[in-house]
Design goal:
This protein is mostly helical. The protein has helices spanning 18-33, 35-41, 43-67, 73-100, 102-110, 112-118, 123-157, 163-188, 194-211, 223-231, 234-257, 262-271, 285-300, and strands spanning 277-278, 281-282. Strand 1 and strand 2 form a beta hairpin.
């Protein structure tokens, strides 16, 4: 994560947006050049993928089969695959944005940030430089994952996606990238060394899937634990992403369950985080969207 002299910013006479754009380009260059940062940014989705490939996938297939015994095994597998994929999309914006803003920690550790503060650079340019890089990396990396995942699941496993659903998922990627860049920048203000940054990145990459309810379905956790996780932005954000990406396989399960099985469908929705509750109050998608915008504003201010 250490920068070279070439990564110092040559500051021209202040022009609106020009210095911020220069800082964004500089921070993007640092991120993509650092292979460790790129790897750490993908740690959470990689952990999630391996967990389900090794053993959690079969456990979830068996669990859903007990709930909907009428459903074909292929339809159940499609549901679980889409659910895991949605979880990967939900957590990747945070880890990639966090990694892209690692240059902020490096700048503080080397004293370069103090140099920026006394230069003609405006403080807003500095903030936009770090947050902008985080946002762009999060959108880019997660969009690549979205495209690759939709293509693979459609061609290889037969999971069906609609154009509208994928477009809605991309819109949510933009929102999550904005909110998570702000949260990540706030966390990094308390990290003052490269070693500390690596440690924090590893911890976040490991536990984020649990906080978002994607390592294990939120319904498998105790009521108090689930309520606590649902108060954080990660689990509700994952709920939003599941909507458009798992709609097709979930509808197939509902059709297989047959009429009069609404109680079974409601149980699956609660078990797998399509509906979330805090203290018995169901979280509405519109509330979550507004909440993520508020998070972006509050943590950026």
């Amino acid at each position: 994560m250490t920068s070279t002299t070439a990564d110092r910013v040559a500051v021209a006479p202040p022009r609106f947006g020009s210095n911020a754009a220069t800082l964004i380009r500089r921070n993007l260059r640092i991120y993509f050049r650092d292979k460790t940062a790129v790897f750490l940014s993908l740690l959470s989705p990689v952990i999630l993928l391996f967990l389900y490939l090794l053993f959690l996938g079969s456990l979830q297939v068996n669990s859903v089969a007990r709930e909907v015994p009428q459903a074909a095994t292929g339809d159940i597998s499609a549901f679980v695959n889409a659910w895991v994929f949605a979880g990967m999309i939900a957590i990747t914006p945070f880890t990639t944005a966090f990694a892209a803003m690692g240059s902020f920690v490096d700048d503080k550790a080397t004293g370069r940030f103090r140099e920026f503060r006394v230069s003609p650079l405006k403080e807003t340019d500095l903030i936009i430089g770090y947050l902008g890089a985080g946002f762009i990396v999060a959108v880019l990396m997660t969009s690549v994952l979205l495209g690759a995942g939709v293509t693979f699941l459609s061609l290889v496993t037969g999971v069906s996606f609609t154009v509208g659903g994928v477009a809605q998922a991309f819109g949510l990627i933009l929102l999550l990238s904005l909110a998570y860049s702000a949260v990540g920048a706030f966390i990094l203000t308390f990290v003052g060394s490269s070693a500390g940054y690596t440690a924090v990145s590893t911890v976040i990459g490991t536990i984020l899937g649990f906080l978002a309810g994607v390592y294990l379905p939120i319904g498998m956790l105790g009521r108090a634990v689930a309520d606590g996780l649902n108060l954080l932005p990660f689990s509700p954000a994952a709920m939003l992403v599941r909507g458009p990406l798992v709609a097709g396989p979930r509808d197939t399960l509902a059709a297989a369950a047959g009429p009069g099985s609404q109680q079974t469908i409601d149980a699956i929705n609660a078990e797998y985080g399509f509906t979330l509750f805090v203290g018995g109050v169901q979280l509405q998608p519109a509330w979550v969207v507004i909440g993520l915008f508020v998070v972006a504003v509050v943590f950026t201010a």
